Amino acid sequence: MPSPKYRREMPQRYRLEAAKCKKCGKVFFPPRLICDKCKSEEFEKITLPENGKIVTFTIIRVAPQQFETEVPYAIAIVELENGVRLTTQVVDCNPEKLKIGNEIKLVFRKIQEEGKTGIIKYGYKAVLA
Fold first, then answer.
1. Cα separation, 101 vs 85, whole angstroms
2. How far apart are CA 78 and CA 86, in angstroms?
3. Residues 125, 104 contacting (CB under 8 angstroms)
4. Each residue's pLDDT tens digit, 28-66
5. Using an 8 Å Cβ cutoff, are 48 and 54 in contact?
6. Does 13 have pLDDT greater than 70?
7. By the number of CB atoms within 10 A of the CB, which of 49, 69, 88, 112 ranks highest?
């Protein structure tokens, strides 16, 4: 991901900021400009809960070049306490022992580096609760 795009997404990645529609209450992560449910353009900024559960997952055994040293690793769709679903890596566990329904907590971690002299990209990952 190029540096400018990463910087634009910092609030979502660093603070788990989402947008809640003021009209119907639907929560969007990442934030949107128009609610797909009621077409409202009025949102309030909210912080997503850190706790949730694994809805589904996969174990990556052949990874892209920048993640080759991490295989095998798990990528999961997690549902947070407020119903928002997001995709994230599950870390600090044996991927072979993961199960659908496992409780997780989102944590702030290093995602990757943009080359040896580029920016270090941080964001959220999940750990078993």
1. 13
2. 6
3. no
4. 998 999 999 999 999 999 999 999 999 999 999 999 988
5. no
6. no
7. 88
CB 73 within 8 A of CB 96: no
Token pair for 42: 């009025």
Claim to verify: residue 44 and residue 54 sit in the same structural domain: no
Pick from 22, 74, 52, 25: nearest CA to 129: 52
C-alpha to C-alpha distance for 38 and 21, rounded to whole angstroms: 9
72 and 30 share one domain:
no
Indicate if 5 and 66 belong to the same structural domain: no
Range of the domain at 102: 49-129
58 and 114 housed in the same domain: yes
- Looking at the whole model, is its pTM more than 0.85? no
**In angstroms, rounded to a whole number, what is the distance separating the alpha carbons of residues 103 and 49?**
13
Q: Identify residue 79 by its one-letter amino acid code.
A: E
Domain check: are 36 and 70 in the same one? no
In this predicted structure, the answer to whether residue 123 has a pLDDT above a threshold of 80 is: yes
| CATH number, position 97 | 2.40.50.840
Q: Hey, what are 105's tokens?
A: 């907590």
What is the distance between the alpha carbons of residues 92 and 108, in angstroms, rounded to a whole number?
13
